[in-house]
Amino acid sequence: MRKYVVAAALLTSFTFPALAAEYYVAQDPKTKKCTVVDTKPDGQTLVMVGTTSYANKEDAKAAKKAAVECKKEEKENKS
How many separate domains does the chain show? Predict the structure, then answer.
């Protein structure tokens, strides 16, 4: 019985961090290019766009498309 409890504890310790993944919309301040990243931007090499994190990558991509800062980038690239 004890080995089952230990196995369950180990499994849980590895599973929960994976389920708690967060995604952010970030912008490079030099190039003004927006990307979706899985680590919180540090404010120097990447700047966070908006004020929230996203539970999955699809939500972050949708937020990137809707972000005003990222739309400016798209217009500049098309010109």
Answer: 1
